[in-house]
Amino acid sequence: MFKHRLWYFTVFLFLCAHTVFAASDSTFLVLNYHDIIQEEERVPPFDRVAVSQKHFESHFAWLKNHGYHVVSFQQVIDASQGIRSLPEKSVLLTFDDGYQSFYTRVFPLLKKYHYSAVVALVGSWMDQKPDSTAPKDKALLSWGQVRELIDSGLVEVASHSYDLHRGIVANPQGNEQAAATAHAYDTDLGQYEDDEEYRQRVASQVAQSRDFIWQNAGIVPRLMVWPFGEYNETVLVASREAGMPFTMALRDGMNTFADLRAIRRLLISDDPDEHQFEAIVTHLRSDRPQRVVHMDLDFIYDADKEQLAKNLDALIDRIREMAVTTVYLQAFSDPDGDGNADALYFPNRHLPVKSDLFNRVAWQLKTRSGVKVYAWMPMMAYKADVPNEWRVKEWREGKAQDAAHIYTRISPFNADARRWVGDLYEDLAKFAAFDGLLFHDDGILSDFEDVSPSALAYAKNVWGLSYRFETLHDTPAHRMAWAKHKSELMLQFTDYLSERVRLYRPLLKTARNIYALPILQPESEEWYSQSLQGFLKHYDYVAIEAMPFMEKAKDPLPWLRQLANKVAEQPDGLKKSVFELQSVDWNTQQPVSMGAFQSQIKLLKDAGVRHLGYYPDNVYDDQPKMVTLKKYFSIQIQP
Q1: CA 162, CA 211: separation in Å to the nearest integer?
Q2: What is the CA radius of gyration of the chain?
Q3: If you placed Cys at 511, which of 389, 417, 541, 614 could pair as Cys (CB 3.0 to 4.6 Å)?
Q4: How many whole angstroms from its chain centre is CA 219?
Q5: Three-state SS across 35-96?
Q6: pLDDT digits (tens, 9 = 90+) for 432-452
Q7: How many other C-beta atoms are found inside a 10 Å radius of the C-beta of residue 19?
């Protein structure tokens, strides 16, 4: 009996030890480097991902002096399987592209510090194919050196694809985008490759990348490092089927063992010195403020291609000079300005295409202006030939009728309608490269909405509320209970739309517009079905319409101060909120004066607001004025 008890006690201690390990030793940081160069090699045009040897050595010294433990990829795998725990402050080092400097400048330091690393090789570069996209001025590792690195026991060799480290034509305008994630556009045929053609292309490339490493280095890689950090569900499946179940992307943040399918890596760029490196590693770039321009693509579009090109160049130049971080870019066409989508700026299966333009403009903004681009899309407001029962219904004159609101909304209660909108979002992600979603401010339901049959059935069958509007609306408590359920339903709806997008854009960030009144007067959730607390929980950022003239505030500055104070009361309120000012007073149809604009910016900064934006931008009339933006609004971009 005693032996049995001792055995159970031993098992109990083992399980306890592993439970503690799972809770405290399951995170790790991954750093990503490329080429390590000598100081004399730092000549224009600068390679933004190259790091000087002097600074690189200071990074190693800083990690050692500050208690970080560099681990191998095998240690990460062992820890994920419960074989042994990771040390505290674990760091994995990775080096992309297989440059010669990894052997001559990194490998000696690995041996000196007894550090491990991952090096990712591009097959077509190593094979020296004539059409290879390998940089002509950079020497690559030889296969003899690769085998020596493997034999050292310090280096894990990963695939960086065979020939996906290149751009392919991905839109009618001829922009080249990441071959791993873009659907190729055939300029001769005027069409995109279909889903099956895309799947077969990337699957064959991934399998070929595995084979070339086996043939030349004698090992089968288990790790795929995605070129440009770009991946999606299709290539993840292809990698797993090729025997590489672990992959790496480029995304700031810590990792857990749940992330091994697509590990986050912190890109080390712009040659940071020791102090800049410390800030990057300790803050993971999470503390950086945003400056957002909310942009109408309708304002840039022109049927004349020559004029359109001029408009786009003017926009790119303006955004670059402005030194902002983010553009919320309209992906739908709304020529009459009523907030409803009449058509879309990307190929899709349900609505007219005004022009296949969103991908072109987003890509130009990202690559030429260096900003993040969020696709601005309606949740529900679509002018489309859909069944009337899909529409939001309003209780008016004693019965359910078509809603009188300016937004012609599709009901989020109708399953077919939800899928229809989801199709649009998935098509957007398939045919455009972007960083985030901004959900339009059309996601509202009043205290008289939605009383469509599907909405009332949902209220009864799912929420346990009354099927009758009169009961839902008869007391303040009933109205607020109904409103909170509707608020949550629309949050879940945007979660669904985000997941449809993440099939193709898994690194997606989300933001959603919220009106000021639900923040200033939380009881007004009854009239809007919007809640700041819910928004902060569901989205990466909350885009607050901080627009005192639109709200007809008697005194704009105290109104803004009160709004900022209300947001600050919420946990992470200021950390996750973008305060969007207005640059036009729509009541008078006149531009907001720059004196008023800069006073509002100063007040919000003084109130602790970190993220600022504005809408709209007029590239042709310099509104807001560039001199004001550069002095009060712009932000210095950091490494």
Answers
A1: 9
A2: 27
A3: 541
A4: 35
A5: CEECHHHCCCCCCCCCEEHHHHHHHHHHHHHCCCEECCHHHHHHHHCCCCCCCCCEEEEEEE
A6: 999 999 999 999 999 999 999
A7: 10
